[in-house]
Amino acid sequence: MNRMGGLLFQTVSVSLFLLLFWGSAMAEEEAVSTSSFIPLVDGKPYLHVIHEGRSVKVQRVQDPAYELKGYFARTARKCPPFCIRPISAADNVATIAEPEIFEFMENELRDGLGMLIDARTKKWFEKGTIPGSVNIPFTELTKEPDSEEMQKYLKLFGGKTREAGSMELTMEKLGLIDAEYKTEKWDFSEAKSLVIWCNGPACGQSPRAINGLLKAGYPADKIFYYRGGMQMWLLFGMNIVTSK
Amino acid sequence: MLDFLKIYTTRAACSRFLAVLVVLLFSIPVFSADDYLSEIEAETVKLDPGLGFEEQPDETGTENNTGTAEINRSREEFEAWLEEKYRGSFVFYSKLPQRSREEVFQQYLQGADLKVIRKTIVDRYLQR
Questions:
Q1: Average pLDDT over residues B60-64
Q2: Among positive and negative, which fits the CA dihedral A59, A62, A64, A67?
């Protein structure tokens, strides 16, 4: 009995020690990691993302006196066509900001369940892009839903063509069988989440791409609009990559 | 005579109105898809050669022959970095058997989130 008590006492002491030590160790780490380093967001100093087959570190400029200069520091451009866009690109398409992009990069993108799409034309992409992005210009994503190009992209995003019989379609329409993520010609059940962006709040390229995809039947809740785009990405001092 | 004048003035007013309408229609800037595209392309000329800050010198990545990500930081470098930045986690890490250390390092190489790596260290230390 005494032996049992001793064992119990030992276990409790070790647990308490570990708890206290771990707590102080964590506090120390937090102090070290938050000293003067400007993180991406609180608790996330930086992250890594795969871009064109190589690992790229995403972090912010560490000089607090750094000021953005050049094209993306401009306050105005000709309007139209470069007018300030509304917060929403389309009904039921969520608009997201930088912290959600970081989460996306570390989860869906890393796991192959999502794609970060730079919807700008090739010339813009070549000047620099957000790490992890692939360039699919809006001109491609606004093609007719039945066009060969659009079908190619829908397949790339994980859409599957389907040949549903009239009975099946009727039952789906009546709500007798599950029709979520399905259209007459496509099954988007396993389609990827797409984060689509362009030059920033006054850029119409990504909203056009988003509307093109919706027209083709892509589910709105699998599309995310990063309205801040390149302008906000640079304003927060995040690094970009240029195509090799 | 008066009726003729009335008809004449009404017709003249109508044609003037139509003429103004036509002029207005053509003077309002309407952007077709092609116009929009050419405006976008024209804007790229204004871009600086390099947007300000380019890719950070990345201590992690180069592309290997297979095209997959290969992180260049060695295990020694990883351990030194962990010790410097996360001393608490390093203390637990240093007490782990080689097999578990390797597992943590591999997790790091695959780009796992730091929170996940630190949790693995504690889990392995507590043998969960």
A1: 38
A2: negative
Q: Specify the pairing of strand A193-197 against strand A114-118.
A: parallel
Burial zone of A241 (CB within 10 Å; 0-12 exposed, 13-18 middle, 19+ buried): buried
- In chain B, what residues touch A70 (CB-CB under 8 Å)? 47-48, 51-52
**Predicted-assembly ipTM surpassing the 0.85 threshold:** no
Closest chain B CA to residue A44: B114
Q: Are A53 and B62 in contact (CB under 8 A)?
A: no
**In terms of Cα–Cα distance, which of A122, A126, A113, A128 is closest to A195?**
A113
pLDDT at res. B60: 44
pTM for the full predicted model: 0.66
Contact of A37 with chain B, judged by CB distance below 8 Å, is answered with no
| C-alpha A56: how far from chain center | 16
Q: CA A75 to CA A72: how far, in whole Å?
A: 8
Read off the pLDDT of residues B77-126 as tens digits, 9 standing for 90 and up.
788 878 877 788 888 898 998 888 888 888 877 667 677 788 889 888 88
Cα dihedral value B39, A154, A105, A208, nearest 10: 30
How much is the pLDDT for A90?
A: 98
Strands (E), B43-123: 61-63, 69-71
β-bridge mates for residue A226, sequence order: A96, A197
A70-107 pLDDT, tens digit per residue, is: 899 999 999 999 999 999 999 999 999 999 999 999 99
Which positions in chain A touch B54 (Cβ < 8 Å)?
Answer: 128, 239-242
> Which residue on chain A is closest to B67 by alpha carbon?
A53
The span from the CA of A1 to the CA of A22, in Å, is 31
